[in-house]
Amino acid sequence: MAETTVTTATPAEAALSSDQAAPRRNEKVGQVVSTKMQKTIVVEIEMRKAHPKYKRVMKSNKKFYAHDEQNSARVGDVVRIRETRPLSKLKRWSLEEIIRRSSLSALPDEKPSRNGENPVETV
Length: 123
What we know:
Blueprint: H1 11-21, E1 27-37, E2 40-50, E3 57-67, E4 78-83, E5 93-100, H2 103-106
């Protein structure tokens, strides 16, 4: 007679295998277009898709509201957002990381001078 051995997974191993089998949360990369709300950014994603019949590549844009806990993102930044539970009526995404800072946000805020004058003080 041949002996058969049955191995059972421990609860910790079962939890690891179930985590690996679970689908990952959806991630998207886009550009920040608005930061006017508190702890919220608006990210615009550009999607390119070939037309089913004519095969021409069509661009379409979609905006997503994402949660930004530290208010660290600025307009023009390229960011990665991740799907999360609903946080409000429109927010279902959270800021994962800032991939590239915008060069526009690095410039100091300077108000243009009136009448084309040089902003240097006169003594």
